[in-house]
Here is the input.
Amino acid sequence: MGTGKWLERASSTAKKLAREEFSRDILVKELEQVLVEAVQERYRKIWLSSIVLPISPLTVLGEMYKSVKKNSYQIKIKYFLDRILSPLAFLVILPFFVIIALAIKLEDGCPIFFKQKRPGLKGLLFIIWKFRTMVPNADSLLDRNGCVKNVNRLTRVGKILRFLSLDEIPQIINIMKGEMSFIGPRPALYEHLERYTEGQKKRFSMKPGITGLAQIYGRNTLEWSKRIEYDIRYIENYSIWLDIKILFKTIKVVILREGIVLDRNPEQVDDLQDQ
Here is the structure.
């Protein structure tokens, strides 16, 4: 078996370990067996050819395992911090939470919140929370293609909330429930699921977030395929440090009010193909 085969087998095992599809002990033993067999094969070839390769398979596979393990631990740290910091964040924003809820109530009554099913981690559905920014019958004001007619669907309070990016605040509730993270791919629309390619479905390998790469590089002006591309890039290059950079860039984007679209614009951004 060539070196490429050993690397492929080890990579497959390491990915299972990162996704926690099987028991960690079983997968670690499997990875160790791959290393042992690779080394045995390596020395057999050395004995036959008397040629010593500059880098041993043990070193290469060992570094690969440590890299995946490190990434897995960083994701666990991320989700642990979400659980710890979200209740604290909720207490800090509680006064604003109450004021916004009262403003919505006083303008046109209930409901205060907009709730919708969205696919999250591993594509599992959850209920996302937002402050309601539109009139109660907003969907009936769309045309047959799901586009906005020449009508105003936003309430006065809703325009302010969207302009200041405050309508997403209730998603702190989703973080406390373990359904979302502060930073990650934005929650996808349920009706888009069947139009995702197999490669695009990788965006569901981490919890969705309130902000992410797509939010600091275009937000709602980006085509859907580009948003998914950013989400996958985030997942493939994840680190705690990346989250920190996204957090600070998000503050800048919100202050400068970049990429804001007050109402939906599918005719401009929906480029997903039917599968």
Notes: The CA atoms of residues 13 and 85 lie 33 Å apart.
